[in-house]
Design a protein that fits this description.
2 copies of one chain form a homodimer.
Chain A (H helix, E strand, L loop, with lengths): L4 H6 L7 H5 L3 E6 L4 E8 L12 H17 L6 E2 L2 E8 L6 E12 L3 E9 L5 E10 L1 E2 H8 L5
Antiparallel strand pairs in A: 1-2, 2-5, 3-8, 4-7, 5-6, 6-7
Chain lengths: ~150, ~150
C-alpha cells in the first residue's frame, strides 16, 4: 500500500472524488510497481447520446479516470498529476451498463508521465483506446502552474 | 432552421439527449451555414476531482458536446455523426460553474468531418482546446459500422 491520496481513498481515509463517484468508478486491481490498473464504471442512462449509446465524451471521462488513477497509485502524499493532454479513439458504440477500464503508465518520469488506456464493454469488446500525458506536481506548484496563462 | 435531430431538439420536438442534460448543455448561438456554435455548460460539484477542479474527462465530454452539435446542426433527418477521434489539451484548471464551449466545423465532408473546439471559464479564460473527427452516417449504416469489429 502506498501513502498518497489514491491510497487514502482506497483505505476510506479520504472520500472518493465526486467525478469518480459520478462515473460509478470501482477498483478491480492495481499494481503501482507495474504501473497498471483495472477499474470498472457504471455508465448510466444519464450519459446517453440521442442514439442511446454512451456519449463519446463520457467514455473519454472514463478513460481519463482510468489512466489518472494508474499514475495516482504511484504518487506520494501531497502530489497530484493533472492530465495535460488526452487523445481518445472511439472504436465502437457502448451502451449504458458496466464498462471496464485498463490503463498503464508507459513512462513514469519525475514530472512528465505518459499513459495509455483502453475501455471494454461487458462482453470484453474494445470500445475505445486512449493515450494521455500528465504532469506530477505538488499541491502548491500545481496551482501556480495551472492557473497561470499557458504558452 | 434545419430539419435534423438537432433542430427537432431545439424546437422541443425531441427531448434533449441525457448526456447533454447531465452536462447542463444550453445553446447560446448556432450558425449551421458557417458551421459554428456557442453553448454553455453547468459544471457541478459532481464533476470534481480530488482537488475540487472539474475532472479533465468531463471537460473532454463538454468539448465533445460542443463540437458534435456544431456538426449536428448541418445534418439532415435520420443522420447521425459519431465522434471517431477526440484530442483534448488542458490549459488550465476549471472550477465548477458555468463554462462556455465554442466550436466550428473545419471541413464538412460528405462523410468525414473535421471539427475544432475550445472551452472557456466564466472569466473568458481558455480552459481547454480540442480537435475531433466525426463521420456522418444514416441510422442504419451507423449501427452496422459501429457495432462491428474495427480494424
Amino acid at each position: 500500500m502506498g501513502t498518497g491520496l489514491f491510497w487514502d481513498m482506497l483505505a476510506g481515509r479520504t472520500p472518493m472524488p465526486p467525478a469518480a463517484a459520478t462515473l460509478g468508478w470501482k477498483l478491480r486491481e492495481v499494481d503501482a510497481e507495474a504501473g497498471t490498473i483495472e477499474v470498472e464504471f457504471e455508465a448510466t442512462a444519464a450519459f446517453a447520446n440521442p442514439a442511446g449509446h454512451v456519449q463519446g465524451g463520457f467514455l473519454a471521462a472514463m478513460l481519463d479516470d482510468t489512466m489518472g488513477p494508474a499514475l495516482a497509485a504511484t504518487l506520494g502524499p501531497g502530489q497530484f498529476a493533472p492530465t495535460l493532454d488526452l487523445h481518445v479513439q472511439f472504436l465502437r458504440v457502448a451502451w449504458p451498463g458496466t464498462l471496464v477500464g485498463r490503463a498503464s503508465v508507459v513512462r513514469r518520469g519525475k514530472q512528465v508521465c505518459h499513459l495509455k488506456g483502453e475501455l471494454l464493454d461487458g462482453s470484453g469488446r474494445l470500445v475505445a483506446t486512449a493515450i494521455a500525458t500528465a504532469m506530477v506536481q505538488s499541491g502548491e506548484r500545481m496551482n501556480r502552474v495551472r492557473t497561470s496563462p499557458v504558452g
